[in-house]
Amino acid sequence: MALLVLLLFCQVSILQVYAAPFNNAFKHLKSAPKFWHISDLHLDPTYHVTEDHTKVCFSSKGIPALDPGVFGDFLSFSYMKQADLQPDCFVILLDSLPHVPKEELSTDVVINVIANMTHTIRQFFPQLPVYPALGNHDYWPQDQLPASANAIYDAVAKLWSPWLNPEAVATLQKGGFYSLVIKPGLRLVSLNTNLYYSPNQVTVNMTDPAGQFQWLQGTLELSRQKMEMVSLCNCSRSLPYAINTTAVRESYNEQLVKIFRNYSDVVQGQFYGHTHRDRIMVLLDHQGKPVNSIFVTPAVTPIKSLLEPFSNNPGVRAYLYHPEDYALLDIWQFYLNLTEANLEQRSKWKLEYIMTEAFDIDDIQPHSLHELALRFEQPQSKVFDKYFNNFMVSYKLNLTCEGSCKTIQVCALHFLDQEIYSQCIAKADR
Question: Per UniProt, which keywords does this protein have (predicted)?
Fold first, then answer.
C-alpha cells in the first residue's frame, strides 16, 4: 500500500533525491529546534505523461498543462527524510484528494486516500510525531464539511489516533478539530476552518458550527491560565482570492480575528495552507500594534487557474524556534524547480530562501514581519519583488506584481478585518 502511494507520487520507481545546499550564514541556527510544515498533497492517481496536454489528469479539468513530465508529483517525503534536519514534529495540512469533479470521488475513496497518505507518512517518519489538519478536499463532496460526526471524521480520528490523545480523538470525531500538549508549556490547536469556508453550504446561517468557537475560546483561556503557549494550524484563513472576497465568510472571519486578538499573548504562531502560495500576514491590535505572526506555507502540488499568469513550484518548509519560550526564529524554505526536474529527469530539491537572511530581519516575530510589510509598501520595492517571487515559489523570475496585484498583496498582509481590508483596497484605488 505504501509502495503504491510512493509510485503515484512520482510516477517512476527509481529516482535520486539531491540534498539542498546550506549556506554558512546560518550555521548558528542549525542547532535550533525545528519542525516540518507541508500542505496540499492532492494525490491524483490519474496523472500520466501524454502528448495530449488536456488529458494529463482529471485535476486539470481539460486545461492544457504547460509542461507535464514525470515529476508532475514529487518525492517530497524522500527529500525531507534525507535532509535530516532532526525535526521535533511534522505539521501537515492534508488536502489529500485531487481537484476533480465530485462524480469521480466518494466517501470511501476519500477515506482510502487519507488512509494511504497516513500510512505513507508513518512509513517515512515512524518515530516523528505528526499533527494533521483537514483540508477542504478531505471530504466528499468537497468543501461541504459538516458540523457533526460523520464517517470521514470518524475514520481520520482512528487513523490519526497513534499521534493523538483520547481527548483529541474525541473532538476530531465530533467536529474535525482537536488540541493537545505537544511539549511542556506548548499546546497545538488544529482547527477545522473548513466549517467557515465560503463554498461550504452545510454551515450557512450557523452561528457556531460544531461549537468550535466556544471550544477554541475555552481552550485558549485554559492555556492562558496554565501559562501555555499555543500554535494554531488550520486549512484556510481569511485570505483574499479576489478584491473584497475572502475564503472565510465575513461573520466567521470577524469572530476568529476577535478571538486571536483577545488571546494574542497566548498564541505563538498561526500556520495555514490551502492557497498553494507562500504568504505572510501580521495581526494588528486595535491600536495598530503587531501581535501575531501568520504564515501560509506553499503547497507540495502546483496549481494554476485559467485566469492566472502564474503557478507555483512544489515547496516544503521548516520552522526554527527557541527551545525555552518557543518563540519563532526563522523559516527555511525548500523547493523543487519542476521545469528543471522534468528536463534533467531528476528531483533536485534546493534551499529557496532563509527568511531572516533574504529580508534582513532579526526573526519572524510580529514586530519584524510588520516592519517588513511596511517596506513592501514603498514604490518599486525590490524587497516586495523578492517576496512576490517567493509567493510563487520561484515559478518565473520575470513576472511582476504591480497596481491592483500589489494592492491586494499588501492590504492582505496587515488587515485581517474585512472592513479595514476593504478600506485599504479602496484607498489604493483613488
Answer: Disulfide bond, Glycoprotein, Hydrolase, Metal-binding, Secreted, Signal, Zinc
Instruction: Please answer whether residues 301 and 41 qualify as being in contact, where contact means their C-beta atoms are separated by less than 8 angstroms.
Output: yes
In the block, cell 532532526 appears at 86
CA–CA gap between residue 17 and residue 340 (Å, rounded): 14
CATH architecture of 2-429: 4-Layer Sandwich (3.60)
Amino acid at 7: L
Write out the DSSP string of 112-175. Answer: HHHHHHHHHHHHH-TTS-EEEE--TTSSSSTT---SS--HHHHHHHHHHGGGS-HHHHHHHHHH
Phi, psi of 150 (to 5 degrees): -160, 175
- Give the orientation angle of helix 107-124 with respect to helix 2-10, to 10 degrees: 90
Instruction: List the one residue out of 95, 84, 99 whose CA is nearest residue 46.
Output: 99
pLDDT tens readout for residues 104-150: 889 999 999 899 889 989 998 999 999 999 999 899 999 999 999 99
| Three-state secondary-structure class, residue 187 | strand
Query: What is the DSSP track for 204-249?
Result: TT-SSGGGHHHHHHHHHHHHHHTT-EEEEE-S--S-EEETTEESB-
- The answer to whether 257 and 283 are in contact (CB under 8 A) is yes
pTM, rounded to two decimals? 0.87
